[in-house]
Fold this protein.
Amino acid sequence: MAERSTAAVDVADTSGEEPLTAEADQSTADGVANNRERDTDSEEAQVDPASEPSSGKTSPPELHSGHKLARRYRLEECLTRLDGFSSWRAVDEKLRRAVGVHVLPADHARARSVLAAARSSALLGDPRFVQVLDAVEDNDLVYVVHEWLPDGTELTALLAAGPLDVYDAYQMVSQVASAMAAAHREGLAHLRLNPNAVLRTSTGQWRIRGLAVNAALRGVGSDTPQRTDTEAIGALLYATLTQRWPYESDAHGLIGLPKDIGLIPPDQVRAGVHRGLSELAMRALVNDGATASRHESPCTTPEELVKALGEMPRVRPPEPDYTTPPRYQHTTYQQGAYGRPAPHPGATQPVPSPPPPLQSRTGRALKWSVSALLIAALGLGSWQLADALMDRGGKADDQNRTQTTDTGDKGPKLPVSKPLTIEGAQEYVAKGSAQAPGDVAKTYDGDGSTYWRTKSFLDGPEMAPSVKPGVGIVYDLGSTRTVSSASIGLRYAGDHTTVTLYAADSLSPTGSVDSMQRLGTTTTGANSATVKVDKPAKARYVLVWFTALPYASGDGYSDSGYKQAVTDVTFKG
């Protein structure tokens, strides 16, 4: 089973079949927001404070629609021609998927830096960034192939309809700040973080395109890269709260602030802005160590911004609107008139007699059996036997009626399963690369909207043992507990999801799955799976192991293929 992952790829190999990437410049052909890069002087001045050095008089490559790179990437539509390079929407004919491609001459002044930036971005392999698939120098051309997000909507397009609500703004700044903090820990900066570079997918995830590559294409640099990216995040938050660009010049389809008034907080620009987010935007936007907040210090790195977010009260999603009562379609059956003509206005309708009480099927069968035995007993003259059978039949019928009408404490009490507390979890990798180890905790955080996901595989549904025998997570129950079942919430419905429980010896098992005690297995096509333990078993560490996956379409994390995601896991014992 070939793995189509969102992890880092060997960018020197033009035949790599791995992730998808960086600055997906996309069109609105299918109602998806226009993701094309916008290159206006006003935008460049606000987002990129460093000047762009000239690339000389190198001409863009003479390319056209239908041209193929490496006999694989067919160029479809030119999105940008600027300063000696061009950006295209293309098709990877080998994997039959859309991709984006940046192309520039091999002798371009920035060709070396573009290749280096693309390779560094690909090695990061963080799914919060649009992934680089390939970075190649082929004869007289250098090209970078990156992920294409058909369901991605630019923040620019979202803001065209108005400011975001407080929860969406909070999610945007939280996800973008944490992603950039992770990138800076690996020595990578964006330097062109603007509303065109931030996309929201159909699943509500925020993705960043152009990490390192966009700046390299335009020759943008900074002596304080963390400060530059942090201020850019502050500008994004300011824009989502106010629908205004926090500088005097208009940019990215947004109106700038009035001249000569300086930088004013978002809650002074628009009424009803969340006070905490307003102050956070000002702490990120301030320059030279000054702060617009009277009580808080400025945030000068994405890490400090993440810390400040963590100290804020969490912004909850809006509550559903229950003020409007739901509408029900009343059928004649629901109105008690099924099979009867509609009454005439003013006519008095007879009150129908209630139907006779229903008798249980078992009770009727038992009565007929007792009657038959009674007749036989009469025939033989066994009156005493008949009396005994009648008495037994009556008691059995009463008992049956009691059991069918009273579910209280009449029958034997069965043991009630109780949820077991999960103390920790860790992804188990039997062969190949990990899936999403940083998202394991999302499978038991009590939030059904968060999840751990597998990568997308080309072949399936059964996973190939020689390549990838399975994927899964080991859970720590804190102590040795009796495990009776596991309930697993799944993101993708469809046939062939096969999951098995194993008792592991630790949170990081050293042996193979074959050496573990098998507890139970199931196959489902729904959005959940319940695995019952075959025999009562005690374990502290339980492995939830997937060996077959359903086919699902592309989303914000991976291309279409065989894949699965786990939203919630609950163990009972």
